[in-house]
Design a protein that fits this description.
Length: 812
């Protein structure tokens, strides 16, 4: 039916184009035709009382106050006192930005104190100042996941597998309450992307490859976050939602984040716009523009889409907000100066660190007539309209400080239900459900790791650097299974490395992708653990010992896991379930007799690949040939078997690595170690692994360079995102001369980093440091180089790109 409907739509669009005198393929690239788009209309935002209040308020505002409403700063780059000179209308807390005077990983009180500190200055009475409350935004994309102690729900890819819009509304409501309790007014969600290429690092933020599934969830989530159109306020524990990213971010060439969706307008409408009309009809208060381009035109500068389609044809009466410095990617713009984005229809620019200059330049450009005053007034009216409807002009905040709702039992119960409903059973040769009276082993490093099972956008931007202690009240998958087994008289023993003393009746092995978010999550092969099959080795070990194996796979996308499927008696796609690991046990663990307590109900919302080269695998495409089709999912009541699968991936495994330069005693492909012959090299033990490091020795008086390099890398996006070069090393003999550290052609003096010291240490250096010292980062072939004159002896155990900036240093 979906193909038929889509076919009818495409044919109708072709006729409309022809009737309008537009030959397909001849229209200017990146120019939308509003008449082809579906009509919608914002509900609950515009009413006479609100518009009268906004009009009277705007009459009092200076130009500077109006422009201030159009600029958003990140809390890492602004302090409350700055608002006295720069009357900004909004602040955000980016993925790894800490609350004021507190660590990034902080519970709700620190975030509430931050929100109150900024609002206190924004709202203080001052001569010549129009008092307008701030709107504080945060990436609450799967629960209020920046806050320690919050309920973290499954990522969208898992929620899409549920096919349960009613539960989505409950998830939205719980997220809103926990966000409002921390003093935050605005959640940057729901994400309505329709990923078409699983190489994209944000694929897990999409509910499905199928636009109809995305559309079915859109309004449900908006209503959960905001309440019924025009009726939900911050005083009731609702927050503003932001439908994102408009438009086409899931359709970029090669699945490259921030890339170009070079697709026909009919596909942009039928596939990628599917979730927006329902969201608009449900009263969504804001829409976030995409980093990406359509047909070569950056979305942040595409007036035909932001103004003519979104605000015109689709009747959106809220405001359009930008993404992190994305306006700076418009040709002719910088992050600090971009009249083009406002003229295109952006109402609020997200200018995290360049906000001050953007404010100043925008004021000057309005005065010079480069930005029409009418455009400023329209943007400001839209922003103030939302602030009024959300209740921000009312002083009462009954939910702010209501910390008992953060991670509340009823919210964790909703999340636990979502975990159970999202699990997809791919294979079961009669070993599930687990008999709860048995003696089982729960193995794998991921089994007792809540951060691992939660994925990216969790406490930190990329989801790295987390420990179980950062999730008070959360439950790992192992803990959930152990509790279920104990309740029925069984035993579950944890073994990260798969070792055991007493042979278990069954092994549950939990493994999957390392956490990631945008950019660092982009991949070039769908093969899981390409070239380094750690999980597969464990599965085969159990099989060889005659122990039945249940695999629980954690991932943000379907991946080629044929070898792992072959080595498993049962295989469960658990996606990224969040903090409530007990939901996995609810389905996997039966009663004492082995009868199911709860059946599987999840079905694939993304097609599962047959080879590692099936990057675009969508049911609507010709030659559709998946291993498991969209909608596939076994149950206890309706079983099925999976035969032996081909273990030929179809892709060079070295393509799987773009950020790991040295680990476990070796340089993984496609990188290589080029050591000057004057530097002696030998394997040594690392802190955790026999011969897991390499010792490099510069003899006395010898000037030499060691280098790790490979294919050319464009690291421009990583510089903008504050990605780090992370080095784990031990100084065995302090250097006798200065030490120069390079990435690409950028070189810093790292002598202090390699001064004498005991034991292993880890340091993170922002890539921006190397750019500042001579590297343009567009064609980097040297991932790491050290130059000095001996004597100097250094042991290196790990070298990689990392995203968590905490503790980073920038040598001069």
């Amino acid at each position: 039916m979906r193909r038929t409907v889509k076919g009818i739509l495409v044919s109708a669009m072709a006729l409309t184009l022809a009737g309008a005198g537009i030959a397909q393929g001849s229209a200017p690239r990146g120019l939308a035709h509003p008449d082809l788009w579906p009509a919608a209309k914002s509900q609950g935002l515009v009413d006479p009382k609100t518009e009268k209040f906004v009009t009277s308020l705007m009459a009092k505002m200076t130009l500077e106050e109006k422009v201030g409403q159009m600029v958003q700063a990140d809390i890492a780059s602004i302090r409350p006192a700055d608002l006295r000179q720069y009357p900004l209308g909004s602040i955000l807390a980016g993925g790894s930005s800490p609350p004021l005077d507190s660590p990034d990983r902080s519970p709700a009180p620190a975030w509430l104190a931050t929100a109150r500190a900024f609002n206190a200055v924004a709202n203080e009475p001052r001569k010549g100042h129009t008092t307008i409350p701030l709107i504080f935004g945060i990436d609450a994309v799967h629960g209020n996941s920046n806050i320690v102690g919050a309920t973290v729900f499954p990522h969208n890819i898992g929620l899409g597998a549920m096919r349960d819009p009613a539960l989505m509304t409950k998830i939205g409501r719980a997220t809103a309450v926990e966000t409002a309790a921390a003093g935050i007014d605005w959640a940057f969600g729901p994400t309505l992307t329709v990923p078409q290429d699983e190489r994209w690092g944000r694929a897990y933020e999409g509910y499905s490859e199928d636009p109809s599934i995305v559309a079915s969830y859109s309004a449900a989530m908006v209503i959960g976050l905001q309440g019924q159109p025009g009726k939900g306020t911050i005083q009731q524990g609702y927050v503003a939602a932001s439908a994102k990213h408009f438009l086409g971010d899931g359709g970029t060439i090669g699945g490259v984040d921030q890339g170009d969706a070079d697709i026909p307008e009919r596909d942009l409408i039928a596939i990628h716009n599917a979730g927006y009309p329902p969201a608009i009809d449900a009263g969504v208060m804001s829409v976030m523009a995409s980093f990406s381009s359509w047909q070569g035109v950056k979305m942040h500068g595409n007036k035909s889409l932001l103004t003519d389609v979104l605000k015109g044809r689709m009747g959106f009466d809220g405001f359009v907000v930008g993404d992190w410095n994305a306006h700076g990617q418009i040709p002719g713009c910088t992050t600090r100066d971009c009249p083009e984005t406002f003229n295109a229809g952006l109402d609020m620019a997200m200018a995290p660190d360049g906000w001050k200059e953007l404010f100043t330049n925008t004021v000057a450009e309005v005065k010079a007539g480069k930005i029409p005053m009418a455009r400023v007034d329209d943007a400001v009216r839209r922003i103030l309209r939302v602030k009024v409807k959300l209740g921000l002009f009312e002083a009462a905040r009954p939910y702010a400080g209501k910390f008992d709702v953060v991670g509340a039992p009823e919210h964790r119960a909703i999340a636990r239900q979502a975990v159970a409903e999202s699990l997809v059973l791919l294979k079961n040769n009669g070993v599930l459900p687990i008999k709860a009276s048995a003696n089982i082993l729960v193995a794998g490093a991921d089994a007792d790791d809540i951060g691992q099972q939660s994925g990216g956008w969790t406490l930190s931007w990329q989801g790295d650097g987390n420990t179980n202690a950062d999730f008070p009240g959360g439950t790992s998958i192992y803990a959930g299974i152990a509790a279920a087994m104990k309740a029925a008289g069984g035993i579950a023993t944890l073994s990260a490395d798969g070792s055991y003393t007493t042979k278990p009746d069954l092994a549950v092995v939990v493994f999957g992708e390392q956490p990631y978010a945008e950019m660092r999550g982009d991949i070039r092969t769908l093969e899981f653990e390409a070239g380094d099959k750690v999980a597969l080795a464990m599965l085969k070990k159990f099989k060889a010992a005659g122990i039945p194996v249940v695999s629980v796979f954690l991932s943000g996308r379907p991946l080629w896991v044929n070898p792992e499927l072959n080595a498993s008696d049962a295989f469960v796609a658990a996606w990224l379930p969040g903090t409530e690991g007990a939901g996995v046990a609810d389905v996997l663990v039966g009663d004492a007799a082995g009868k199911p307590r709860k059946d599987f109900r999840g079905t694939l919302s993304f097609s599962w690949p047959k080879t590692a080269a099936q990057f675009t695998l969508n049911k609507s495409e010709a030659n559709y040939d998946p291993l498991f089709a969209l909608g596939y999912g076994l149950t206890y009541a309706r079983g099925g078997s999976v035969g032996a699968l081909s273990e030929v991936s179809g892709v060079d495994p070295s393509l799987g690595n773009s950020s790991l330069f040295f680990a476990k005693g070796r340089v993984p492909a496609p990188f290589s170690f080029a050591t000057d012959s004057r530097v002696e090299r030998k394997p040594v033990d690392s802190a955790t692994l026999q011969e897991g490091a390499v010792q490099l020795n510069w003899p006395a008086g010898q000037d030499a360079t060691i280098r790790i390099g490979g294919n050319s890398m464009n690291l421009t996006r990583e510089v903008n995102a504050d990605v780090q070069l992370q080095i784990t090393y031990r100084v065995d003999k302090a250097p006798a001369a200065p030490v120069k550290l390079s990435v690409g052609t950028g070189t810093v003096d790292a002598s202090q980093l390699f001064a004498a010291g005991a034991g292993w240490r880890t340091v993170k250096i922002p890539l921006a440091c190397f750019k500042a010292h001579g590297d343009d980062m567009t064609a980097v072939t040297t991932a790491f180089a050290l130059n000095t004159t001996g004597p100097f002896t250094l042991s290196l155990s790990d070298l990689r790109l990392a995203a968590d900036p905490a503790g980073s240093v920038c040598p001069k």
